[in-house]
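Entry for the shared binder. Reason: the reviewer on the internal report wants the predicted structure included alongside the sequence.
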Amino acid sequence: MSLSVGKALRKAHSHAMAGELAAAEELYKQVLSKFPKNKKAIQGYQKLKTRVASKGLSNSESPQEQIQELINLYNQGQYEKVLDTAKLLISLFPKVITLHYIQGASYAALKRYDAAIDSYKQAIKIKPDFAEAYNNLGDALKDKGELDAAIDSYKQAIKIKPDFAEAYNNMGIALKDKGELDAAIDSYKQAIKIKPDFAEAYNNMGTSLQNVGELDAAIDNYKQAIKIKPDFAEAYNNMGTSLQNMGELDAAIDSHKQAIKIKPNYASAYNNIGIALKDKGELDAAIDNYKQALTIKPDYEIARAQKLHQQAHICDWMAIEQDNEAIPKLGTFIQSVSPFGILSLEDAPELHRLRSEIYAKSKFPQKTLPPSPRPTQKPKRLRIGYFSADFYNHATMYLMAKVFEAHDTEQFEIYAYSFGPEENDEMRQRLINAVDVFDDVKEMSDKDIALLARQDKIDIAVDLKGFTKDSRTGIFSYRAAPIQISYLGYPGTMGAGFIDYIIADKVVIPEEDKPYYSESVIYLPHSYQVNDNTRVISGRSVTKFSLRLPEQGFVFCCFNQNYKISPAEFNIWMRLLTKIKGSVLWLLKSNKWAESNLRVEAEKWGVSGDRLIFAERLPQAEHLARQKLADLFLDTFNVNAHTTASDALWSGLPIVTKLGQGFAARVAGSLLAAIDMPELITDTEQDYEALILDLATNPERLGAIKIKLAANRLSKPLFDTELFTKHLEDGYQRAYQQYFDGKKPEAIYVPE
């Protein structure tokens, strides 16, 4: 005790007079512990007890008025004051269960979950059939992350009180958080059966149905919740998300706006409007909504990540720079954000793994389906299932079409599961003709797709989407096949325990970088990226004049999407334009905002905006043909050219790249290594700039490189689709052998 006895007693008296009873009690106890016979301390403490005990007591055992005061304070959100008084009352009335119950609720409201759990357990100890205490104990355990214990507590509450609708609803939430979505839905249904007007249970069931892909059913439940509770903002917001996932963007926006009308400071609804507007191509309006969400909730990392990704799309680098310090923190602590949107903003594979793990755990917890029985003998033909939303005229198919046709049908049976648009185009038809089974599963839930794959006895499931747009990662969380592989679509780790392997090569994932990937690596001997060596280059005549390119000036080219461009490479490009008289930069036309912003950035360097020429999108064959009019392809840094790099090299256009740290920043290097053009790979920005300048000013050297590229195009491994397919199949066989032998997945090295 640091205070003198006199000061301590005076302070205790002051606390008592101010109604701060617990503080007064503590001081009296401190004095008495040192001086147990101090008369003033004894008298003060007795008066304090008498004051509390006599105030409004209806009988000698239950302080009813004080309890009501505590309830009032709790309802006002004054949780610390509740705890201050409850502590003293419990010392006087230790067997009054309501005091322990209120104390637990206050601790829970303050997120002091261990203390809340202890309080609820004490209430249950006094009254073993206290169903409400078991329910609240479950809530505290759930919020602490102890889901199994929480579920057990809810079950106990229901055992005591079989018609406890709230406990069924809360158990559903815990089951959903655990990934047991079907069980969660059953629990919500039981809550509704007991309490037909339980709007919250309808809303919660909607979110679980949404998570398993049953969007129509989800919307029906949201509508029922709103019918019961017309001001249910959360149900409107959730319904908007389901509508958005169905592609009904205007209806989704209307639903989110209704949520905001009810709840004006609803940050999540503003963020969701932003996502819908982004999907509509209204990027400026989308960004405004993300900003509004952040105004309401400054620590809203999902909205910040969305805003940054769209600002990258429109090349608003000044706005991005304002958030530079926040970027490494996004999705790497508690809140989860989609890792894909951060790739162009940060080349840090260690942070990417952490971000992916948090995201995967949050969005795609491991689901519970019985494990597939381990085979007693190897199948004569391995069944490979490819899963994608891109089985049509899309970059994925431009690369992969020939692989589907080249698979060894004596060793492999190929299944394709499509959950993308129903397009009946050339690439879709090539796929259907090549595979053994084609299934359009777009309308099926993630679980049902996984069950279908199991029914088809798929040995290896290959996810061609990862965390990219229109992905269905939830399929693999159900373990669609004994072996699950991430390939091609997503340039990085999934961070998910249910993805066993990632297909790569030693350029995109050097040996020393394996710790940055949660998957075991299947190393192919050349580039990981497949290419179709039958892609047609249009023979239609195309001129520089028709494309607004100078007849004589040097044409630098970058057909990467605009979001991949950052100030780091753009500044180099502008310096080159200032040095190479008459040169131009040929870019892909993406959106009007990016075009305007890039021209403004060029003007800052004294480069006329007219020297930036934006190419319209063309059919694949014509796009390949026009690249012959460019002189040199300039790669972006954090996210390299992928399919666009293959396009350029297939067309005979050399690429200069710089090796970064992560997978996405090393792809072009992988392609150049596989076509034996290492002289076009640099390690630093200085070397990158120097090499480009040398090639642009040394026509003999550039000409020699183009001749070498033309010779290597069909003689080196990069465009040897048949060789690639054999290596890929070898990787599949080796992965299956590890599984058959009962081994955990480990790195696989496919020989040349």
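Summary line for the report: Residues 100 and 141 are 17 Å apart (CA to CA).
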